[in-house]
Write a structure and sequence with these properties.
2 strands, globular, mainly alpha
Length: about 290
């Protein structure tokens, strides 16, 4: 953490876009034209965290921290009925911290939960499974697309998954139960499926059919498992995959082109907005509880 905060003010760094050496104080890379190649002096520190600039670690520890908080805020509501529900936070706790779905979005007007819900999990097995996948796939996506684009793909996919399952939960209840959306939805799986979608798109963009087919198979297997296991948010998975695939096919995120300074700023904005969405959920939830109890 302290190493990450160390700012370099002199010397050279490797430009994040073109990989050429450039002076850290240069406003524009003379080789590729990227603005602020030194990233305000933090380029070397961020690169030391890996291709993802530490974003995967941020997601990992952020999810663990929020999960522990959801347990601690309502210890009496913790459920442990079976392996799938081992150490499962209460619905009240999940709603407080930003669960999404038809109830929060359409009945309570908590539209910002389409961002916050990706940091919540419904049990020990749920969070372990999702964090294993994000640590497996996230750095690889960052290596192919870049760290800023990883953040953008993950955030957009998490949102599209949340939006689709909320809409399905509100309007698709006349369909068979297996096709219902979610009244309450949580988890990072929408973002993870978005990374699968990005890797499928990468295979198509670069004509690497092996990679595209590999991650298409992964996605399909997990989709099928979702129809077998109970309480799996299949609409969230589908929305996440589509969101990650579509945004990855946009020219602005073309992996054949170098990352830009603007993409970095948008990625930082995504992280800030996600944090604010969790804080907004907690603040709004506390206000609702006060109104109910008054």
């Amino acid at each position: 953490m302290f190493k990450l905060l160390q700012r370099q003010t002199s010397g050279s760094i490797v430009c994040p876009s073109c990989g050429q050496l450039v002076q850290v104080q240069e406003p524009v890379c003379p080789q590729c034209g990227r603005r602020n190649p030194g990233i305000w002096g933090f380029a070397r520190a961020l690169r030391s965290r890996g291709y993802d600039y530490g974003f995967v670690s941020l997601v990992t520890w952020g999810c663990i921290g929020v999960y522990l908080a959801t347990l601690l805020v309502d210890p009496g509501g913790i459920r442990s009925s079976g392996a799938l529900n081992l150490l499962s936070p209460s619905g009240r706790s999940l709603l407080l911290f930003g669960a999404t779905g038809s109830i929060p979005v359409f009945e309570l007007g908590r539209f910002w939960t389409v961002l916050s819900c990706a940091w919540l999990h419904g049990g020990l097995l749920h969070i372990a499974f999702n964090l294993a996948w994000i640590n497996e796939v996230g750095p690889f996506v960052a290596k192919l697309y870049g760290a800023s684009r990883l953040v953008l793909i993950y955030t957009v996919a998490a949102m599209t998954g949340s939006v689709l399952t909320s809409i399905a939960g509100q309007y698709f209840n006349e369909l068979p139960a297996i096709l219902h959306g979610a009244s309450l939805s949580i988890g990072a799986s929408g973002g993870i499926f978005g990374l699968f979608g990005a890797l499928v798109a990468y295979g198509q963009i670069t004509s690497d059919s092996t990679m595209g087919q590999k991650y298409w198979r992964y996605a399909m297997i997990l989709f099928l498992i979702g129809f077998i296991l109970p309480a799996v948010d299949n609409w969230g998975h589908l929305g996440g995959f589509l969101g990650g695939y579509v945004i990855s096919r946009m020219p602005w995120l073309n992996p054949k082109t170098p990352e830009s300074h603007r993409q970095l700023l948008v990625a930082i904005a995504c992280i800030i907005l996600t944090l604010l969405s969790i804080l907004a959920s907690i603040g709004h939830g506390i206000l609702l509880l006060k109104l109910i109890n008054s």
